[in-house]
Write a structure and sequence with these properties.
The complex is a heterotrimer. Chain A has 12 helices and 8 strands. Chain A is of the alpha/beta class. Chain A has a single domain, classed as Aldolase class I (TIM Barrel, Alpha-Beta Barrel). Chain B has 2 domains: about 260 residues, 3-Layer(aba) Sandwich (Aldehyde Dehydrogenase, Chain A, domain 1); about 180 residues, Aldehyde Dehydrogenase, Chain A, domain 2. Chain B has a 7-stranded mixed sheet, with helices on both faces. Chain B has a 6-stranded mixed sheet with strand order 9-8-7-10-11-19, sandwiched between helices. Helix content of chain B is about 35%, strand content about 15%. Chain B contains 15 helices and 20 strands. Chain B is of the alpha/beta class. Chain B is globular, with a radius of gyration of 23 Å. The termini of chain B are far apart. Chain C is of the alpha/beta class. In chain C, the strands form 3 sheets. In chain C, strands 7-6-5-8-9 form a 5-stranded parallel sheet, sandwiched between helices. Chain C has a 3-stranded antiparallel sheet with strand order 3-4-10. In chain C, strand 6, helix 8 and strand 7 form a beta-alpha-beta unit. The chains are: A alpha/beta, B alpha/beta, C alpha/beta. Chains in contact: A-B, A-C, B-C.
């Protein structure tokens, strides 16, 4: 856990924001049609972390979400299942029981999500409780205040501590990019997280806008690629917040495809944190198969 | 100079990035061709003289073909001396009788009309451009056509403001302009030439390139339909002889040429002592310098835009990559990865990054340079992307370990071929960048603002892109130092090329 | 007092000046060792002047190239002060120039007017050095997220075929070229070369760095072609009313596509404008992203 100075003194490459936006615009001009589109839509479903993170979440709400995860659309039994259901720690047990044997993971946010403004001991305890309750994956938030104040050693130590507390559970590190201000900071935070033990890096909590914008995601993907090239280690990516349409999702897949290649088009390495995305993807799948535009009322909440 | 690919320290297996390589069992992109249904192309196109389409006086024609399929698209009239005479006479008549007498505000309105109709017919023009010239639809749709319209819109507004353009000297049009344009940006070059000329009150005779005449002829339709008085714009199609007849015509007051330095020099010689006005936009061999403090991923993107935009058929292409040695390994390795995602093929496919080489002749020239580069000892690298069986294609290519003494470093290839060299210090990089008879453009990649400003100020070239490349705008003057040309197009400076002081008129 | 002085003058043999060329801040003779005679209007020889060769042209271009980057790097303010200093020096030597012009056939009052006009012209361009960029450069409102600007840069080494107008024309052709940061190789081929050789001395005492202005005397048909063809010369300013001179020089200039400006004026009284500067400038357009 003594990563501090070595990790804190690393350099991340500078990022030119205008150049990133131009690259994104060019990626967005890719036209995905026919079989390639259907394949992308199926892939998208398999990458979704179906998420509910509200103060009003109850056991009933979580069970309903899990049921949706288990059966996305009754009329299409051959669909892939989503990657995970993502809930607060207090509801991990409920989700775990509902999804037992399905192959769908339970992810839990932790570390005083979404602000992260709690003593480290309490954050670590929350992580351990979530894992004990059955969480397969932990989505932590970094302390943005400390990071923005330049205390990179603290951020590195914090991530490493949480990683240790996770045990076998996979760690996703939420950077909350909407609070970081610049793409340079996004890149630096990404590098820091990967070097400190993250299995995934994740854009946002979903509570702050902007969230998973394409420029931010591209910068994170490039950080993952560079980390891979240096270490051979494949870190996963999870954009979360703001991706609500199939069109958005396909654009993300194109960006992954052309930045990290075929290997990352896999739920083990790419996730969408989303609540309403699944139904739009389902709508598009049915439309692709039937040729008829669909209504949201045709799909369960 | 040392080895141009120092160790990168990278041991991880290669990323699987190829998008259309046959071996890829993963997610490839299905073809996404732009529909050509509503584009009307005729079998035969005439010359546009005095507001009407006519056959050549001697009835000669030539074929224009689709370089992606090698199939003929149409027969196009081949203008001879008599036709050029008729076009210049029409332009002179229109200048004397109509255009020079028209209120500037009204003149501007015609030019605005052209801009608007170009926008309305943008899709049709983009498809025609890609069919006739081989450029990817993504570029003709997103770059060529919108910029052509923007040029007309920009210069239209100058028509009634010429007195404010050059303080203290007034402004008068020159008369009849003879203009010859190349095949790499057929409609955009026509716009660069025609828009400032007619907005400033001149009339024109324009000769499009032999291999890409169609969009200029569609522009002629647009100009006719916009009600522009007959003879203000005349378009004569043909090859080099037709162009020579235009620029050497006695009754032409101003010559504007875009093309090779070799032909540019012939034109300049022919104009010696004539007192005629001229602008020449010629060749280039631009250096794109990547410094160790650059934003590397954006620099790689800029390198790609610099050399692979429009198949590298770009006079200002960043065809010499100069990378600082300390980052050369990383930059080159990332560049190769990025190149693997470039799709070569059907220009009308919306996913195509690199379309067809414009002509058999140009492909032959590029292939000759590929042999020269290897024979000189540079190390070639090409991507694995598949290319169609018919048509003219060239995969994106690097020449690593290239040297300043190599022909592939010195000479303009005008294809998707990038010569890669390294440098050690800022001064060495600048010296290498300037070590060429050309001086059209250059690129600088550094996150340090002071360095970017300093290096751009020390490169002897007319257009410098710092942390970007191949950007164009009607407000931004464009043109070369040294043997890359004389004069500017675009912006206020571009207007200067079509005006003379009040006193001189 | 005055009697004694005039008595001394009457006895004294005057010291005649050797008219040399001005290259790289020095006053050499022609490498060829040849000379021509400068003549009074009645054909009387006044002085010997150097008849420079193509090798002198070559050496002068080398000197101009060596000086160019440094001269262009001077601040506009500094170049303005140096042009002003030339005017000061010329003013101080006005009597000498009036005498030279008179020896060439000018009426004394005309000679005085020309020297004054030449001095004022230098002053005019001294004032432009830090202003023409403000008037003629631009920030271009491009439609993308870039800061885009076009500035003027000196073309570099400018070859000048000096006009027949021996002082005002000479000054009017040199001053705008150097005001804009160019260095010059000036060919003086007219019937009155002496004001030009003496003007070299003015330049040399005016803080003008060596090589910024190089003045060669001799014959046009020997010097102009090698200068116009020289691949290390960026532009030529041809001050001649003869279209054949322009035409042949323009053909030579094609070798490296050097820029050619032609000035056919015989009368230089009104040839004064910032466009004399901008005609010897390149436009450079630079793009920088405007990031967040």
């Amino acid at each position: 856990m003594q990563i501090s100075t070595a990790t804190a003194s690393f350099e991340s490459p500078p990022i030119d924001a205008v150049g990133v936006e131009e690259r994104v615009a060019r990626l967005c001009s890719r036209s995905i049609k026919k079989d390639a589109k259907l394949q992308a839509l199926h892939l998208t479903l398999s990458m979704i972390d179906l998420t509910t993170l509200e103060g009003a979440d109850s056991e009933g709400k979580v069970r309903q979400l899990c049921a949706k995860a288990l059966q996305l659309h009754a009329a299409l039994p051959d669909l892939p299942h989503v990657a995970a259901v993502c809930v607060y720690p207090a509801l991990v047990g409920v989700a775990k029981r509902a999804l037992e044997g399905s192959g769908i993971n339970v992810a839990s946010v932790a570390t005083s999500f979404p602000a992260g403004q709690a003593p480290i001991e309490i954050k670590l305890l929350e992580v351990r409780r979530a894992v004990e309750a059955g969480a397969d994956e932990v989505d932590m938030v970094i302390s943005r205040g400390r990071f923005l104040a330049g205390d990179f050693a603290y951020t590195a130590d914090e991530i490493a501590s949480v990683k240790e507390a996770c045990g076998e559970a996979h760690l996703k590190v939420i950077l909350e990019t909407g609070e970081l201000g610049t793409l340079d900071a996004v890149r630096r935070a990404s590098d820091l997280a990967m070097r400190s033990g993250a299995d995934f890096i994740k854009t946002s909590t979903g509570k702050i806008k902007p969230a998973a914008t394409m420029p931010v995601v591209l910068v994170m993907l490039e950080a993952i690629r560079d980390h891979y090239r240096r270490t051979g280690q494949k870190i996963g990516m999870k954009p979360a917040g703001g991706i609500s349409t199939a069109k958005d999702a396909i654009r993300h897949l194109v960006m992954v495809r052309e930045t990290l290649g075929q290997d990352w088009l896999d739920p083990d390495l790419y996730r969408f944190g989303a609540s309403s995305l699944a139904n739009d993807v389902l709508r598009q799948i049915v439309k692709q198969r039937s040729g008829i535009y669909q209504s949201f009322d045709d799909f369960s909440l | 100079m040392t080895d141009s690919t120092p160790p990168t320290g990278l041991t991880a297996p290669k990323l699987r990035l190829g998008l259309r390589d046959g071996s890829d069992d993963g997610w490839g992109y299905a073809p996404a061709p732009e529909s050509t249904d509503h584009v009307e192309l005729r079998d035969r196109y005439g010359l546009f003289i005095a507001g009407e389409f006519t056959d050549a006086a001697d009835g000669r024609t030539f074929e224009t073909a689709n370089p992606a399929t090698e199939e003929k698209i149409a027969d196009v009239a081949l203008a001879g001396d008599a036709d050029v005479d008729a076009a210049v006479a029409a332009a002179r008549h229109a200048y004397d009788e109509v255009w020079s007498k028209l209120a500037p505000r009204e003149r501007g309105k015609y030019v605005y009309r052209i801009a608007r109709v170009l926008q309305e017919r943008g899709r049709e023009l983009a498809i025609t451009e890609s069919l006739d010239g081989g450029k990817p639809i993504r570029e003709s749709r997103d770059v060529d056509i919108p910029l052509a319209a923007a040029h007309f819109f920009y210069y239209a507004g100058w028509a009634d403001k010429l007195d404010y353009a050059f303080p203290g000297r007034g402004a008068r049009p020159l008369g009849v302009a003879g203009q010859v344009i190349p095949w790499n940006f057929p409609l955009l070059m026509a716009a660069w030439k025609i828009a400032p000329a007619i907005a400033a009150g001149n009339t024109v005779v324009l000769k499009p390139a032999e291999t890409t005449p169609l969009t200029a002829l569609k522009l002629a339709e647009i100009i006719r339909d916009a009600g522009v008085p007959p003879g203000v714009v005349n378009i004569v199609t043909g090859a080099g002889e037709t162009g020579a007849a235009v620029v050497q015509h006695e009754d032409v007051d101003k010559v504007a040429f875009t093309g090779s330095t070799e032909v540019g020099k012939l034109i300049r010689r022919a104009l010696a002592g004539s007192g005629k006005h001229y602008t020449l936009e010629l060749g280039g061999k631009a250096a794109n310098l990547v410094f160790e403090d650059a934003a590397v991923d954006q620099a790689v993107e800029g390198i790609v835009n610099g050399i692979f935009f429009n198949q590298g058929h770009v006079c200002c292409a960043g065809s010499r990559l100069l990378v600082q040695e300390s980052v050369a390994g990383e930059v080159i390795s990332k560049l190769k990865d990025r190149m693997e995602t470039l799709i070569v093929g059907d220009p009308l496919d919306k996913n195509t990054d690199i379309g067809a080489i414009n002509s058999r002749a140009q492909l032959d020239k590029i292939e000759e340079y590929l042999e020269i580069g290897e024979a000189e000892g540079a190390e070639p690298f090409q991507t694995s992307c598949p290319v169609p069986e018919r048509g003219y294609w060239c995969r994106p290519t690097l020449f690593l370990h290239a040297s300043q003494s190599h022909r592939v470093v010195q000479e303009e290839i005008f294809g998707p071929v990038l010569a890669v060299q390294t440098f050690r210090t800022v001064d060495e990089g600048i010296a290498m960048a300037n070590n060429t008879p050309y001086g059209l453009s250059g690129g600088v990649w550094s996150d340090k603002g002071a360095k970017a400003f300093r290096v751009t100020s020390r490169i002897r070239a007319g257009v410098l892109w710092a942390n970007t490349y191949n950007k164009f705008d009607p407000t931004a003057p464009f043109g070369g130092y040294k043997e890359s040309g004389i004069g500017r197009e675009g912006g206020l400076a571009g207007l200067h090329a079509y005006l003379q002081p009040e006193a001189a008129a | 007092m005055s009697e004694r002085r005039s008595a001394a003058a009457a006895d004294r043999l005057p010291v005649l000046k050797t008219h040399k060329v001005y290259v790289g801040g020095k006053f050499p003779r022609s490498e060829s060792g040849r000379f021509d005679r400068a003549l009074a209007p009645d054909g009387t020889p006044i002085a010997n002047i150097c008849r420079c060769s193509r090798k002198d042209v070559r050496d002068a271009v080398t000197a101009a190239r060596a000086a160019q980057a440094g001269w262009a790097a001077r601040t506009a303010y500094n170049r303005g002060q140096i042009l002003y200093r030339i005017a000061e020096m010329l003013e101080g030597r006005s009597g000498q120039f009036e005498a030279l012009l008179a020896a060439g056939g000018r009426a004394p009052d005309e000679a005085a007017v020309e020297v004054q006009a030449a001095t004022d012209r230098l002053l005019h361009y001294a004032g432009w050095t830090d202003k023409f960029q403000q008037v003629f450069s631009s920030v271009n409102p491009v439609a993308t997220s870039h800061f885009n600007f076009s500035i003027l840069e000196p073309m570099g080494v400018v070859g000048v075929l000096a006009p027949q107008s021996p002082l005002l024309g000479l000054v009017s052709s040199i001053a705008p070229a150097i005001a804009g940061g160019n260095t010059t190789v000036v060919l003086v081929t007219g019937s009155q070369p002496l004001p030009a050789t003496t003007f070299g001395e003015v330049l040399n005492s005016s803080d003008v760095p060596g090589g910024v202005v190089n003045i060669l005397t001799g014959r046009r048909d020997e010097m102009l072609a090698p200068l116009a063809a020289h691949r290390d010369v960026d532009a030529v300013l041809l001050c001649s009313p003869d279209p054949d001179v322009a035409r042949s020089a323009e053909i030579e200039a094609v070798h490296n596509l050097k820029r050619v400006a032609v000035r056919a004026h015989e009368d230089w009284a009104d040839v004064q404008s910032p466009y004399e500067i901008t005609d010897l400038q390149e436009v450079k357009t630079t793009w920088h992203p405007i990031g967040s």
